[in-house]
Amino acid sequence: MRLANVESLFRGIAFMYVFFLTSIAALLEYFTRPFYYPVLGKKLSVGPLTPWDRIVRWFFKVFFELYGIDVHTTFHTKPRDDKNCLVMFAHGSNLDPPSIMLTFPQMTRFVAKDDLFKIPLFGKVMRNYGHVPIARSNLKSAIESLQRAGELVNHEKLSVAISPEGTRRRSNSLGSAEQFAEFKKGPFHLAKSAKVDIVPAVLMGANRLWPPGQLFPNQGQLFLRYCEPIPAEFIAKSSIEEVQELVQKRFAAEIRKVEDKVIFDSSKRRFTLLFVVWGLMVSVPLILKLLLF
Fold it and tell me: How does pLDDT run across 198-207, given as a tens digit for each residue?
């Protein structure tokens, strides 16, 4: 087995350990929220981020640090903390949602395929956090999911992220507009009913770091660009096709080809957190055994 594969396996085991602890913390927060939040909720919040949001964001910071991935983010116009919106992102990798959740000023809820919600523990956490499952093969269910996403935007004043491509592209990113899959109309019906701005987002390098079919991501760096927002006023007076075309133009204007030598830059190989997590994995059970037995 190659050294890189062994390293990836060690990082994967460490990640699952952190994921388990974070999931327990997230579920505890969820079930204790009715008791502590009325008293301490505002004090524990930072700007638009609730304590729950901070747990999730901390988890993704650990995730990217464990795998040695740097996320370089730029904004055409940075959204205000108090103005929710609809993030439409080009989807080519499992790194796309965590990158957005880590970097977007507001914590977003995602419309994601329903298979993810069937994963033990992970699916429970996703539902509790407010993400919306969508069964793309069932039209009635898909419409209900988009209606639920609309409620998050209109009534709960949350930002929602959705991919107009519907699912991850299986092909490698080309760094050009030709790489994008055909846009679905559902996300654009959601945009018209939500009456908020669309913020298009493109990720460069994510597909190369974690392509579909690969178990763990590679170490390197990706580049996330939040494009020029599309105003709610334009969406309201335009047809679905016109809004689709403008989102495609925003994607095409920002997508760039990034060379592999840049994406897979290993000059910042980081092992400190990996060693700390493995140290906890080994030492905590031993300490508990000594104390309890």
Answer: 999 999 888 8
State the Cα–Cα distance between residues 41 and 34, nearest whole angstrom.
Answer: 10
Cα 115 to Cα 122, 155, 214, 259: the distances in Å are 11, 26, 17, 33
In this structure, what token pair is assigned to residue 29?
A: 């927060």
Cα–Cα distance measured from residue 224 to residue 9, given in angstroms and rounded to the nearest whole number? 26
Return the half-sphere exposure (C-beta side, CA atoms, 13 A cut-off) of residue 115: 3
Tell me which DSSP letter residue 230 carries. B
- In angstroms, the CA 145 to CA 112 distance is 10
Side-chain-facing half-sphere of 151: CA atoms under 13 Å: 9
pTM of the model: 0.83
From the centroid of its chain, how far is CA 270? 22
Residue 130, Ramachandran bin (φ over 0: left; ψ between -120 and 50: alpha; else beta): left
pLDDT tens-digit series, residues 245-271: 999 999 988 887 778 777 877 665 566
Judge whether 156 and 95 are in contact, CB under 8 Å.
Answer: no
